[in-house]
Hints:
There is one protein chain. The chain is globular and about 60 Å long. Mean pLDDT is 90; it is low at 319-323 and 325-332. The longest helix is centred in the C-terminal third of the chain and has 25 residues, at 250-274. Strand 4 and strand 5 (49-52) form a beta hairpin. By secondary structure, it is of the alpha/beta class. It has 11 helices and 14 strands. 40% of the residues lie in helices and 20% in strands. It has a single domain, classed as Ribonuclease Z/Hydroxyacylglutathione hydrolase-like (Metallo-beta-lactamase, Chain A), CATH 3.60.15.
Amino acid sequence: MRPIGTVDFTASLQTERIDDETWVLPVPIAHAQPKYTLSYALRDIHGDLHLIDTGVDTPENRRHLERSLLALGGIERVRSITATHGHADHLGLAGWVREVSGATIRLHREDRPSNGDPGLRQQELSRKWGVPDARRRELVDAARIADKQATALTVDHHIADDASLEIPGRSLAIVRTPGHTSGHIALFDATHGLLFTGDALLPRINPGFGLDAGVLNPLALDDLLSSLQQLTAYDDAVACPGHEYRFLGIAERSQQIALHHLRRNGLVRSAWQKDPAIDVWRVAEMLPWRVDLSSMAGGYLRSALVQTALHLEHVRTSVDKRGLEHAWRVLR
């Protein structure tokens, strides 16, 4: 795998030109890792702009994105916004951009808010998962915040599986990549050799899975592995991810991420085999994370527990383990 972009290396907020018709616009994520969402601006044959992902909605980010777009013709030239998925760090600024420019917002139909109160469901899950009482309130708040962010925006067009993103003079194929969320998509620009991967494929971070706003998708791990296998077919393209930096080596990185999750599944299986009554919290405490579980808070803690729960459920309910064993043989 070979880095191409420089955003994460230079800690730069400067717009980077990819080619004569495509730019990457780093948008900060305050007090978090990774430091930026990478928004991509595509220019059509009329000189108008089309965005892929936007970044977190804050007053500072509104001013920053407006300044970044000024050099490309101005925010008023934005005609469409396509989100790779519905998380706030990718879709957050879309509503404001639409207010200013009249742009159309597109999102896959599977990335939608849940029915009912996600906080109440999280309370039930926290008890089931064995979460200590002192940590439950923040998980409830995190679930409600995620769902509120997903419901706060009206989407103009829900993308279907067989769709393409049509831009005057340019066409991008929609590549379904569920796993990170149920409706996650990538976009492939064959003419320019670019694959916009959102959070399905990142150069250093191993993307999480099953991170829908209000529901648990029991197939999220299988979806993720299938999506990563599918992305290996685009190895000749430049990966344009939602965070960090652009890179070459899509097949290699897809396999690395798949192996990461397969190894974690193996650790969860070992813990369950030793103690079939083990709960999600105790399993999560045993797993290696970028930071210790006790240091996680809010959405980060919920993400870790959701993934652990889905691993554990996968281990408990999988009658035929040959699928994962086959994946091991293929990817090693």
